[in-house]
């Protein structure tokens, strides 16, 4: 406790100095330039001044440095120096060419301890077990049939009734919240074989569902606050660490009973498959079966909820601002699916034919990747293709958000929403390497649920765009949230009207 107290009081004493330098930095900040390194405080004043727009400020600095890489200097003795990059060559090097030198590592596991031994934080043998098992599940015909049926049923019994109510009463509502609930119900049904029915007309409050949105912000704070400080906050159970603790409790209270309920009938289910893996594989004896299944489920739920809901939120914001794209999506539906202007949902087979809609989703993911950044640290010292040196366990932050807004990568129109950039002259979707388009990560850790995510997003987006007019509520502020997951800070307030199709 004495050591923690000493560091705590050290930073308290620095507070007046921090405020003074923040005022100076605010006066100097006339245009996007590299942050000033202040005595004792490093670049910390820059963080305080721009935390409300952290991802955009990181992008400005990376784009202004020429090569897309710069070193962030933290306060003296804080151990928060970090190398930031959006350089595709560096991304390819770290995620593919020198993959073995960049495991998740102990620092990642400390920051993301809430994920436990799931696939996101696992390394080496445990990661291989998770990946192989998950890939085997996702490629199984029975699983895919169940996935398609689950999505279709949730559109029919959850999404349409909720949108109909808002349309009938001409109410403003948060479309992002609707997508969060839709994705949460879907992934719970798929992973836990349980539908919590969070997406229904009453829009009930479910602590676990809300915890997924809350947890992303404290995890970003852990990247910039010195470890000694956030550990002290955790010990005191205050601030962002208190929120994180409450989220962890909400996850446990929701998932553990589902594991117990599934214990009697696990054959063929996702939990059943992973329970077999736990029994048949030599797992770390410190991890109980119950905790292993809980961590596995939580990681899969994070992946299934956040990617789908975040991408759909930004897609509808972008399409609302670009009505030409909405018209092209509708024209493609009518041309490819021979529609009869009749109220309906869409099957997986029909969704596969919608190339322009797929391109629009890719463009949404390019501009707003669900996971905004990734933390890496080399096991051995390394030199990146950009020439920057990283010591052993040196902190490297890859900004996926900045990659999509880099002129050197995507051209001078990189900030424009142009689905056409994803369509080849042959009419097919253009493939882009993952180090240029890292929305689903890159290299061996590329998201194994990528196809599953696109399937869900296309079925949902097609159903909404075809059956409803969606318009933004005038004056509602829309900006990115300061968190690991790139959600809309104030949600996405919209109004919907049913199209005049036959019932």
TrEMBL record:
Ranges that cross the membrane: 6-22
Matching Pfam families: p450
Keyword Metal-binding in record: yes
Gene Ontology BP term (one): terpenoid biosynthetic process
One Gene Ontology MF term: metal ion binding
Compartments it resides in: Membrane
Annotated membrane topology: Single-pass membrane protein
Domain of life the protein comes from: Eukaryota
Gene Ontology cellular component list: membrane
Keyword hit for Acyltransferase: no
Protein keywords: Heme, Iron, Membrane, Metal-binding, Monooxygenase, Oxidoreductase, Transmembrane, Transmembrane helix
Residues holding heme: 447
Family that this chain belongs to: Belongs to the cytochrome P450 family.
PANTHER family tied to this protein: CYTOCHROME P450
Entry protein name: Alkane hydroxylase MAH1-like
Organism for this UniProt entry: Salvia divinorum (Maria pastora)
Organism taxonomic ancestry: Eukaryota, Viridiplantae, Streptophyta, Embryophyta, Tracheophyta
């Amino acid at each position: 406790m004495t050591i923690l107290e000493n560091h705590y009081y050290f930073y308290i004493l620095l507070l007046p100095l921090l405020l003074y330098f923040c005022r100076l930095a605010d006066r100097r900040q006339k245009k996007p330039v590299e942050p000033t390194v202040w005595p004792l405080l490093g670049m910390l004043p820059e963080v305080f001044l721009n935390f409300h727009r952290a991802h955009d400020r990181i992008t400005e600095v990376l784009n202004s440095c020429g090569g897309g890489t710069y070193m962030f200097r933290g306060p003296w003795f804080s151990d928060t120096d970090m190398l930031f990059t959006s350089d595709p060559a560096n991304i390819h090097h770290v995620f593919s060419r020198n993959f073995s030198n960049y495991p998740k590592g102990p620092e990642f596991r400390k920051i993301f301890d809430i994920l436990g031994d799931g696939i996101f934080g696992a390394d080496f043998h445990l990661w291989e077990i998770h990946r192989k098992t998950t890939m085997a599940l996702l490629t199984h015909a029975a699983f895919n049939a169940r996935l398609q049926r689950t999505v279709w049923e949730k559109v029919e019994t959850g999404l349409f009734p909720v949108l109909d109510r808002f349309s009938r009463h001409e109410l403003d509502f948060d479309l992002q919240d609707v997508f969060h609930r839709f994705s949460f119900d879907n992934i719970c049904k798929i992973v836990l074989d349980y539908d919590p029915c969070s997406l229904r007309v009453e829009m009930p409050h479910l602590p676990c569902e809300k915890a997924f949105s809350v947890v992303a912000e404290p995890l970003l704070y852990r990247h910039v606050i010195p470890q000694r400080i956030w550990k002290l906050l955790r010990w005191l159970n205050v601030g962002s660490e208190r929120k994180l603790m409450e989220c962890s409790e909400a996850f446990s209270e929701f998932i553990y009973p589902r594991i117990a309920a599934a214990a009697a009938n696990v054959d063929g289910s996702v939990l059943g498959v992973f329970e077999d893996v736990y029994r048949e594989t030599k797992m770390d004896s410190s991890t109980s079966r119950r905790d292993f299944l809980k961590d596995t489920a939580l990681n899969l739920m994070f992946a299934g909820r956040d990617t789908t809901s975040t991408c759909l939120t930004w897609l509808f914001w972008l399409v609302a601002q670009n009505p030409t794209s909405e018209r092209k999506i509708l024209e493609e539906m009518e041309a490819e699916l021979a529609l009869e202007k009749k109220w309906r949902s869409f099957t997986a087979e029909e969704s596969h034919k919608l190339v322009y809609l797929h391109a629009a989703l890719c463009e949404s993911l390019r501009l707003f990747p669900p996971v905004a950044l990734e933390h890496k640290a080399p096991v051995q010292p390394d030199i990146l293709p950009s020439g920057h040196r990283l010591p052993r366990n040196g902190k490297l932050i890859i900004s996926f958000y900045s990659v999509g807004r880099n002129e050197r990568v995507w051209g001078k129109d990189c900030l424009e929403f142009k689905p056409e950039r994803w369509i080849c002259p042959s009419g097919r979707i253009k493939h882009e390497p993952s180090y240029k388009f890292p929305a689903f990560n890159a290299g061996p850790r590329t998201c194994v649920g990528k196809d599953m995510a696109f399937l869900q997003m296309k079925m949902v987006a097609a159903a909404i765009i075809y059956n409803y007019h969606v318009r933004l509520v005038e004056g509602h502020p829309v900006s990115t949230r300061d968190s690991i997951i790139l959600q809309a800070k104030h949600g996405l307030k919209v109004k919907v009207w049913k199209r005049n199709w036959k019932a």
